[in-house]
Amino acid sequence: MTTLEPATDAAQDNLAALESEAIHIFREVAGEFDRPVILFSGGKDSTLLLHLAIKAFWPAPVPFPLLHVDTGHNFDEVIEFRDRVVERHGLRLVVAKVQDWIDDGRLEERADGMRNPLQTTPLLDTISENKFDAVFGGGRRDEERARAKERIFSLRNAFGQWEPRRQRPELWNLYNGRHRPGEQVRVFPLSNWTEADVWNYIAREKVELPSIYYAHQREVYLRDGMLLAEGPWGGSRPGEEVRELTVRYRTVGDGSCTGAIESTATTVEDVIAEVSASRLTERGATRADDRMSEAAMEDRKREGYF
Amino acid sequence: MSSLLRLATAGSVDDGKSTLVGRLLYDTKSVLADQLDAVTRASVDKGLSTPDLSLLVDGLRSEREQGITIDVAYRYFATPKRSFVLADTPGHVQYTRNTVTGASTAQLAVLLVDARKGVIEQTRRHAAVLALLGVPQLVLAVNKIDLVDYDEATFTVIAKEFASHAETLGYPQGSVLAIPVSALEGDNVATRSERTPWYSGPSLLEHLEDVPVAPDPHDSALRFPVQYVIRPRTPEYPDYRGYAGQIAAGTVRPGDEIVVLPQGIRSRVERIDTADGPLEEAGAGTSVTLLLADDIDISRGDLIAAADAPPRITDEITGTLCWLSSKPLKAGARVLVKHGARTVQALAGELHARFDEQALSSVDAPATLELNDIGLVTLRLAEELGVDDYGVSPRTGAFLVIDPKDGDTLAAGLVGERFS
Q: Keyword set for this entry (chain B) (predicted)?
């Protein structure tokens, strides 16, 4: 959960076991479902997810499209990375733009401008329009205590809702993907990975990530203890001083609520060293949406979010 | 030594499992400042003077409201010696199915008892489930030892009673380690306590770091359920036909003679492929793609096995079911059986016996199996399967029983006449 050390031989064995488990999960879904889709934001977890999917079906192409719920508040570098990856691997990308839902009145912009909480409706609408029956997400159980309760195959009802008290038992590596029409299964191949495993695997496999994960110069201002950047989501208010700092991001999310950290880490190895010394979790450090209440993640999952 | 230990907790409600897990996370410095801040704030709100460590793990709103664990949570922590994946399971009788969930992949289980109450009904139930699932290592954590004034005699009585129970369940003498702990105070959790000078064994964490893990069954015969057929049909790979799956047991090398079941067609492994290139050898747990010497019609659900040691092919399974649903099982019920990558229709035949985990005896010919019952049942299958006894090869001896109507998982199944 916390200590990130350079991977030893034993840790490499552990990564190999995690990789085999994730590949098994991808193939199981390909075998059991009609219309799976991979949720892809361009962040490190979904990039890793795609990397593992490519390995699971090699030398055949990945038999699923990608789905990006675009808040409209993205970092340019991430969108550019997303499109480049899709192009390189010949994948199909479905984009659900939150802005479209706001424009036609199905959603209303929040007073605080945050669009992360608005993603759920476009996600659920797009899942049902495309009749997706299995949706891969990059969620890890070490991220948050409500996520620690999540099964690898997580049945959602026809409203996309998670019912934590009614989860199916998950036994051995026998995943039960049965569902009724309208129901869907969320699938989490990275469930048993920790942040340390993710970074060590990225280092081992030389997985390319969006440049914002590494140190760069950016104009930022301090709000609620987070370094926020200017963008389509707004910018600094009077009294919030904008400064150019050397920063990087630990997670990639909606620009309105994802903060940068001051960092000089320019390589994967630098990042591993930096994160291992941090006393904050990746979400606790830079994600305002998880701070809204004690059960923020659980409540969003119950609504249909990942 | 293996770098990773998968463990599960078990025990009755209110015996302090979540506090113990919270303590393990806290003492291994697996809790970061923002997580501890959140717990400290919530504890102050509840009027507590010290952080309630159970709040680190009880992740659901209703769990925190009721102060109990409802569902399995998976936790990750590490020491310089080893990494751990811990399944923290609920203690309530109604959630025994979650204990089965947590224990099905565990190499070690920590069973908690309250030092004031000793071995109770739920302790015996959980021990029986752990024995049934073949969890190889058991630790009895006699918790709340502070509430009996660190009394040696109390601990010894409980440890002895449990050791004899475990032996009846099939755990060899001396294979269960009992440790006196106080999860609340931290005694004997990460470090040995001065308040139990009469206890000379390791702390719980020391034991978890040093306990040998049973090796993967590499010496058993090859079992490879075909998950997916890889046929690229691309200009680069026009004729590629690979069988993708995760090796369930044994080892595979190019040249090995194999048999494809249930058809019974024999062939030879030509190549073991991965995205990183071909392998000279692959063992249990590895996800690979096999290419065979002959062009055979093989699809998802087929089983590739060592030609000289195949599993038995059968259209009838007699096995132990842990019934996990509130819908009872009666003879004649139509169900689905998921075994490896194959799901087949099945009909429940005879209910031979129900195991009474309190009396450690069995009741003949029960009318039904109810939630949390463990019983010996025969299932008639619409198609043949290649199965092994669970005790010989857990991955090809395990199966799910599924409700064809709503897809719910009804039971965990283990092939073999264990309670006959």
A: ATP-binding, GTP-binding, Nucleotide-binding, Nucleotidyltransferase, Transferase
- What are φ and ψ of residue B193, in 5° steps? -95, 140
Beta carbons of B59 and A144 less than 8 Å apart: yes
Angle at alpha carbon of residue A228, lines to A226 and A231, rounded to 5°: 165
Which neighbouring-strand residues pair with B142?
Answer: B113, B180
- Inter-CA distances, A69 with A120, A122, A280, B213, Å: 9, 7, 27, 43
* Nearest Cα to Cα of residue A81 among A40, A38, A138, A118: A40
Q: Which residue of A has its CA nearest to B244?
A: A27
* Amino acid at the residue A230: E
Phi/psi for B192 (5° steps) reads -70, 145
CA dihedral A193, A304, A253, B87 (to 10 degrees): -20
**Residue B95 DSSP class:** G
Q: Which amino acid is at B394?
A: P
β-pairing verdict for B137-143 and B108-114: parallel
Pairing of strands A93-97, B73-78: unpaired
Q: What share of chain B is helix, strand, coil (3-state, %, to 5)?
A: 20, 35, 45
Q: What is the pLDDT along chain B (420 residues), one digit of tens a residue?
A: 457 899 999 987 777 888 898 889 888 877 766 777 777 787 788 787 777 777 777 666 666 566 555 577 888 888 888 889 999 887 666 666 778 888 999 999 999 999 999 999 889 888 988 998 989 899 999 999 999 999 999 999 999 999 999 999 999 888 899 999 999 999 999 999 999 999 999 999 999 999 987 665 556 899 999 999 999 999 999 999 999 999 999 999 999 999 999 999 999 999 999 999 999 999 999 999 999 999 999 999 999 999 999 999 999 999 999 999 999 999 999 999 999 999 999 999 999 999 887 777 888 999 999 998 899 999 999 999 999 999 889 999 999 999 999 999 999 999 998 754
Written as six digits, the tokens of A209 are 């990530």
Give the residue on A whose Cα is nearest the Cα of B38: A294
CB contact under 8 A, B228 and A31: yes
Chain B's closest residue to A180, CA to CA, is B406
Q: B77 and A144 in contact by Cβ < 8 A?
A: no
Task: Quote the distance between the C-alpha of residue B228 and its chain's center.
Answer: 25
Q: What is the DSSP string of B134-155?
A: T--EEEEEEE-GGGGTT-HHHH
> Tokens for A130?
């495309």
d(CA B157, CA A9): 43
CB pairs under 8 A between A and B: 190
Shortest CB distance from B275 goes to which of A17, A21, A58?
Answer: A58
Instruction: Quickly tell me which residue has 């719980």 as its tokens.
Output: B204
H, E, C per residue of chain A: CCCCCCCCHHHHHHHHHHHHHHHHHHHHHHHHCCCEEEECCCCHHHHHHHHHHHHHHCCCCCCCCEEEEECCCCCHHHHHHHHHHHHHCCCCEEEEEHHHHHHCCCCCCCCCCCCHHHHHHHHHHHHHHCCCCEEECCCCCCCCCCHHHCCCEEEECCCCCCCHHHCCCCECCECCCCCCCCCEEEECCCCCCCHHHHHHHHHHHCCCCCHHHCCEEEEEEEECCEEEECECCECCCCCCCCEEEEEEECCCCCCCCECEEECCCCCHHHHHHHHHHCCCCHHHHHEHHHHCCCCHHHHHHHHCCC
Structure-block tokens of residue A128:
């049902």
Helix, strand or coil for residue B271? strand
